[in-house]
Specification:
There is one protein chain. By secondary structure, the chain is mainly beta. The chain has one domain (about 10-20, about 30-40, about 50-85, about 100-275). Helices cover about 10% and strands about 45% of the residues. It has 3 helices and 17 strands. Strands 3, 4, 6, 7, 9, 10, 12, 15, 16 and 17 form a 10-stranded mixed β-sheet that branches. Strands 2-1-5-8-11-13-14 form a 7-stranded mixed β-sheet. Strand 13 (about 160-170) and strand 14 (about 170-185) form a beta hairpin. The chain is globular, with a radius of gyration of 18 Å. The N and C termini lie far apart (about 40 Å).
């Protein structure tokens, strides 16, 4: 049996605040196919790191690990260069494993703004996102999933999706959430309690002491009658779920919500990093 080469990538990005009050890169480690770029940003925007995978996509047995830390009173954004493609896994191969961990120091601002993950039919993915937040820190995280490329006549019908979130504040677990679809994905997606006819979903989480102040503004923004959305407020957490049968529309809604939060909470631009508009 042919032995296929598998990717085992990693990226570690550490940001600190220097004596002048500016956020600076403190530590960087990268292992192919993970690569991190640092574009120039507009005045007033936090330091920005752009994550990309040089393999052009991931498939069964591939692994990536990302560790992102923002030090005390620093501010930084980690985003992705483009949508990530998850291709069909060969029979007998392990699922793709993607792990992202974020650590935010006291009174810091940290953003994880991932563009869509596109699941091809037969893809198998285990993804985890974990955040450890110090008192006074604020975090905005965005993740989206697309069930196949509609324009190409593709649909995610069989495979595995195991998507897990864990968020802690000062070591205390605030939120744990896991979504798992395996086997007959089409049947599971179209169940009345699941995705219905939606072809994509997105989760946005804003963690901050004043998260409650954005509950009504976000709900007002989403009150447009377009497919499904929900906004939940927990202890210092604002959780937004989006479902849509139209993928570009879901993307536009996610961009709008993320822009509203970062502008209202931190005085940043409503415009997301430029790579989102390429």
């Amino acid at each position: 049996m042919a032995r296929h080469q598998r990717a085992d990538g990693a990226a570690i990005v550490s940001i600190t605040r220097d004596g002048t009050g500016a956020s600076r890169l403190c530590d960087l480690y990268q292992r192919a196919p993970c690569r991190v770029l640092f574009p120039d940003v507009a005045a007033g925007e936090p330091l920005q790191a752009v994550l990309l995978t040089t393999s052009g996509g991931l498939t069964g047995g591939d692994r990536t690990r990302v560790e992102f830390s923002v030090g005390e009173r620093a501010g930084a954004t980690l985003t992705t260069q483009a949508a990530e493609k998850l291709y069909r896994a060969l029979p007998g191969t392990a699922a793709v494993e993607c792990a992202v961990s974020l650590a935010a120091g006291a009174d810091s601002w940290a953003e994880w703004l991932a563009q869509e993950t596109i699941l091809f039919n037969g893809a198998r993915l285990r993804r985890t996102f974990s955040a450890d937040l110090a008192p006074g820190s604020r975090m905005l995280a965005v993740e989206s999933i697309v069930f196949g490329r509609e324009a190409m006549g593709e649909e995610f019908c069989t495979g595995l999706l195991h998507d897990s979130w864990r968020i802690r504040r000062a070591g205390r677990l605030l939120w744990a959430d896991t979504m798992r679809l395996e086997g007959d994905i089409t049947g599971l997606r179209r169940a009345p309690f699941a995705f219905g006819e939606s072809r994509a979903c997105a989760t946005l989480v804003y963690a901050a002491q004043e998260a409650c102040e954005l509950l009504e503004p976000v709900r007002a923004l989403l009150a447009d009658g377009a497919d499904e959305s929900g906004v939940t407020l927990l202890e210092g957490l604002l959780i937004i779920r989006l479902l849509d049968s139209d993928v570009p529309r879901l993307r536009a809604r996610a961009v709008g919500v993320a822009g509203l939060i970062r502008h209202a909470a931190a005085g940043l631009s409503r415009t997301l990093p430029r790579v989102w508009y390429c």
